[in-house]
Amino acid sequence: MNDQAIAGNHPAQKLVSGLAEIRSNWTSGQRRVAKQLCKKLLTDFPNDGDLLQINGLICNESGEIPEAVKSLESACNSPSPKAVYFTDLAAVLANAGYEAQAKPVLQEAVKRFARDGKIHLQLGLIEARGMGTRNAIPHLKRAIALAPDDWTAWSAMGVVLLSLDDIEAALQHLAKALKYAMAKGDKKAVSDIRISIGECQKELGNVKEACALFEAVLADEPHNIRAWHCLTLATKVPQEHPARAVIYDIYQSGRYQTMPVNEQEMLLFSIGKVEMERKNPDAAMKALNEANKTKRQTITYSPTAIEDMLEHVRKCFPAERFAHLGPIRHDADEPQHIFVVGMPRSGTTLIEQILSSHPEVFGAGELDTMVFHHHALIEHKVRNGRKREDVMKYDDDFIHILGQAYRQETLGRIKRIQAAGATDHPPRRIVDKLPSNFTRAGMLALMLPNTRIIHCRRHPLASCFSIYNRRFGGVQNFAYDQRDLGHYYNTYESFMDHWRDVLPADRLIEVDYENVVENLEDQARRLIAFVGLGWDDACLDFHKTERQVRTHSALQVRQPIYRSSLKGWEPYVKHLGPLLETLGLDESGNPVSAQSKRAS
Fold it and tell me: Which of 74, 83, 396, 401 is buried most deeply by CB count within 10 Å?
C-alpha cells in the first residue's frame, strides 16, 4: 500500500482503535478514563454516531443526564444513524422520567427502522409504563413477529396482559418467554419470568404456588429484590428466612442506594411491611418515609391540577343533567352495571367480593375500560375537528357513545372469561370496582340506564395510612407524600359532596368500611337490596368465593372479616404529623376544632 493510501486510512484507524480503547476502559470500570478518551476523540470525530452513542451512555452512567441526551440526540442526527442510537436515547429519557419525550424518539425510529423488533419492544414497554397499557399490545405483537424467539417481547406481553387482568393469556406468553430464556441460558431472565408467573398465580388465588416460585428464585439469588418484595406481599416472611439476612444487610449497609430506583422502592416498601408485621413502628416508618420520598422524586404531581380538573367536572354535571332520570328498574336492560368507587384502600375490594359472591353477580375487578374509552373518545373527536374545550363539556352525544363502547367491551370481556371457565350463565349484575371512577360518577349515572354507584368510605387516617405504606403498580401519584395524600383526600371528599347533592338516591349509595366490619350481615343485605337482587347467604361467606382479585387487598378478601385494620394507623401516628395537619385531625383521629387550631 502506498503512502497516500496509508495516510487516507489513518483517521479511520484512529477512530477504530480509539473506540476499542474507550470500550475496554468502560467495561473494566474505568469510567473516568473512558470519558476523558471520549472527549478527546470527539474533537477529531464530532459527528461519528458510534462515538456519540458511547459518550452518551457513559454520561448517563455518571448521572449527567442532559449531557447524555445531547450526545445521543447528536448520534441520532449523525450521517449514518443506527436503530440502537434511538433506543438508547429513549431509554435514557424514560429512565429519567421523561417518557413523554421518549415516545416521539421511538416513533421516529419506527419510521426509519420499521423491521427492528427492539424499537417496537421498547415503544411497547414505554406505553405499558404509562396510561396507555393497551397501546403497548400492537407494538409488542410486532416485536414478537419480528423476533419470535426473543424472550423479552414474550415476557413484556405477559406482564402487560397481567396488568390488564388477562391472566390466562399472560401465563401463556410467560411460558413462551421462559422457554426461550432457558434455551439461551439467561439466568437473570429466567428468574424475572418466574417471578412474573408467580404474580399471576397470586392473582388467581394460588398463593402457595406463587410463594414457591418466589422462594425458588430467592434460593438461587437471595439478593433478588423483586422476588423478596413479591414474597412479602404474598405472605408474612419469618425472621429466620434465609434471604432476610441478605436483604437486611443490603438495606442497613446503604448499598441499595446505588441500585436502580425501582429496586430501591421495592426494597424500602418491603422492609416497611416486614417491620410493621414485627410491630416495630419506628423502624417501619423510617423505611416507609424513605420509600415514599424515593418514589415521589420520580413522578410529577400537582395538587392544584387535580382541584382544577374536578372543578371542571363539577361544572359539567349540575343537578339539571340528572333531572330526567326516572326510578331504577331492577329487571330491565340486564345485565345492569354497578360501579364501586372511592379512595384506594377504602374497602372497594371487600364490597366487590361480597357482591360477587351472589350467584347472579359477576365481579369484573378494576377495569380500565372506562378510563380508556373516556380518553380515546376525547382524542377521536379532537382529531376529527372538534375543539378540545368543547369536547370536554361532555355533552349527551359524548355520554351516549361512551356508554355504548363501555358496555360492548365489558360484555365481550365477560363472555370470553365465562367461555374459558366453561360457563355461559349470563349475570344480572356486573361490578366494576375501579376506585378512581368517583371522578366520573356523573358520566356513569347517565351513560347507561339503571346504573348504580356504590361509594366506599373509610376513616381518612385509615385509608391514607394504608395507601402510604404500599407501592402501587398503577398511577397513584398523590400517594407518596403525606401532604399530597392529605390534600388529595380532602379534595376527593369535597368532590363527593357534589355527587351526593345531585345524584338521585337510587343511583348512589354510600357504605362505610367500619360499618361493614362491625355488622357484616346488615350491610351486605343493604347492598344486595340496593342492586335489586334477592338475598343469598353466600354473600356472608365471601372469603370462600373463588375468583381473580388483583389489588393490594387480594389476600385479605380471601379471609373472614377482621377488625385489626380499623385503627391500624394508631401505632404510627407520631410519624404522621404532616398528614394529620393536612387532614385537620388530632392524634386520636378526631377533627381539630377551630378553637384548637387558633390556640396552636
Answer: 74
